[in-house]
């Protein structure tokens, strides 16, 4: 049967929303549905005139030739039960992508616990600027492009490769579907506690992907990550390109400014110095991985690194919302202790004498499990004040009680936004919101009130 209409369940996830753009570009009529509809993907889908229904009622499920099932959908979902009972054609997003988009493409897959979206956007920006016209799928909203995914006419396709499960009927990691020529593993830590019991299970997923790669393919990784090292010790049959620190590795970077807004990159004794708009060592590491991946395609460091000077970043990755002399407000996607710590360290390097106020929503399944509670207090050490929001009052209370002088709870974002404006903010404060969700619209509230 010829497929003309595709309906995507879970379309507002950053991956599935980007998939919708590719499907439409291929000529399919695309619609979707989701429970939680919020920016940035909701805005992008609206701008692209892709119809999105609220919720998963079977009465709202449109007729389609194929249903793409997001990994947020579980058995018991009303629409899923109807699709299964009616034996309607369905598949997962990653499987559809592999069959319809990635065939015969030279795939750069960007994986790891942190930095995937930014690294994918960096790679895409460099390739576009150098005239390669790549295909790409960025699980976020890049500032340098009007869309998060595009087919492209060139042979290279850059994809953000998530280790989360594929679908309720395929518990393998999404990345197993992508057949990369170059695999970037930025870093590796335990996450997704709702899917994996321990770090070893995640490492096994990466090993399974590496087992599919040819001897001519390449794995790019930092030399100082012991968890990645443990994966590679299970077996590697492809080339390896690692980066690390001066004096130990051929490939490394050096900060010229403490906040890493000015730095030098070194690849095989070639050196390039750049000044760019990004902050933090984590972004320098992301860039280093991107530059090494492109080196595989015979793109020189002098050509690739200079493109980063005009790279604007990704929405909600330390994104500036308010930039006045007396007040700075940033929005960030950090939702893991390591990412929170790196974000705050980057801000402290830039604003060493300012008071930093961190607003953190405990939203991811791993964060809500309490697994990271001990690490969260040390992760926020660079902040002068910390305000927590989350569904578990006991968890929030325990966090605050361990350091009651500078730890606080947000009960209502509306009341908090007003309290922040009236009695908390001082002149020259730096405020950063950190959440992988909407934070109940806090960004818009603060933008309007501050």
TrEMBL record:
InterPro entries: Mpl, Mur-like_cat_sf, Mur_ligase_C, Mur_ligase_C_dom_sf, Mur_ligase_cen, Mur_ligase_N, MurCDEF_pg_biosynth. Gene3D superfamilies: Mur ligase, C-terminal domain (3.90.190.20), Mur-like, catalytic domain (3.40.1190.10), NAD(P)-binding Rossmann-like Domain (3.40.50.720). Residues 5-101 form the Mur ligase N-terminal catalytic domain. Residues 316-437 form the Mur ligase C-terminal domain. Keywords: ATP-binding, Ligase, Nucleotide-binding. One of its GO terms (molecular function) is ATP binding. The keyword tRNA processing does not apply. Residues 110-293 form the Mur ligase central domain. Pfam families: Mur_ligase (PF01225), Mur_ligase_C (PF02875), Mur_ligase_M (PF08245). Transmembrane segments: none annotated. One of its GO terms (biological process) is peptidoglycan biosynthetic process. NCBIfam families: mpl (TIGR01081). This is Mur ligase central domain-containing protein. It comes from marine metagenome.
């Amino acid at each position: 049967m010829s497929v003309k209409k595709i309906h995507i369940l879970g379309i507002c996830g950053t991956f599935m929303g980007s998939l919708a753009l590719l499907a439409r570009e291929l000529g399919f009529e695309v619609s979707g549905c989701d429970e939680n509809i919020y920016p940035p993907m909701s805005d992008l889908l609206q701008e692209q005139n892709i119809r999105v229904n609220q919720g998963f009622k079977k009465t709202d499920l449109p007729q389609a030739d194929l249903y793409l099932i997001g990994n947020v959908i579980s058995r018991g979902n009303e629409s899923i039960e109807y699709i299964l009972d009616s034996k309607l054609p369905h598949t997962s997003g990653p499987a559809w992508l592999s069959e319809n988009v990635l065939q015969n493409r030279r795939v750069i897959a960007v994986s790891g616990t942190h930095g995937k979206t930014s690294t994918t956007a960096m790679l895409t920006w460099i390739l576009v600027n150098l005239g390669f016209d790549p295909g790409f799928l960025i699980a976020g909203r890049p500032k340098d492009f009007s869309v998060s995914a595009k087919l492209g006419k060139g042979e290279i396709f850059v994809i953000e490769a998530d280790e989360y499960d594929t679908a309720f009927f395929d518990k393998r990691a999404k990345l197993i579907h992508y057949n990369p020529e170059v695999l970037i593993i930025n870093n590796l830590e335990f996450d997704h506690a709702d899917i994996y019991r321990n770090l070893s299970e995640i490492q096994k997923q990466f090993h399974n992907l590496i087992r599919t790669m040819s001897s001519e393919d390449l794995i790019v990784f930092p030399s100082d990550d012991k968890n990645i090292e443990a994966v590679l010790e299970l077996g590697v049959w492809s080339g390896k390109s690692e980066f690390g620190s001066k004096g130990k590795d051929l490939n490394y970077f050096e900060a010229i400014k403490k906040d890493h807004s000015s730095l030098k990159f070194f690849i095989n004794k070639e050196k390039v110095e750049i000044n760019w708009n990004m902050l933090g060592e984590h972004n320098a590491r992301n860039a280093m991985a991107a530059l090494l991946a492109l080196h595989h395609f015979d793109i020189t460091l002098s050509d690739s690194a200079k493109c980063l000077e005009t790279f604007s970043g990704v929405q909600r990755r330390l994104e500036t919302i308010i930039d006045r002399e007396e007040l700075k407000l940033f929005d960030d996607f950090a939702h893991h202790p390591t990412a929170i710590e790196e974000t705050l360290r980057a801000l402290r390097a830039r604003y060493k004498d300012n008071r930093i106020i961190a607003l953190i929503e405990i939203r991811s399944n791993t964060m809500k499990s309490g697994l990271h509670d001990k690490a969260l207090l040390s992760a926020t050490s660079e902040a002068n004040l910390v305000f927590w929001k989350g569904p578990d009052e006991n968890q929030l209370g325990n966090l605050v009680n361990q350091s009651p002088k500078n730890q606080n709870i947000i009960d209502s974002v509306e009341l908090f936004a007003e309290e922040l404006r009236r009695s908390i903010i001082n002149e020259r404060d730096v405020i950063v919101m950190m959440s992988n969700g909407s934070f109940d619209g806090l960004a818009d509230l603060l933008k309007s009130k501050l």
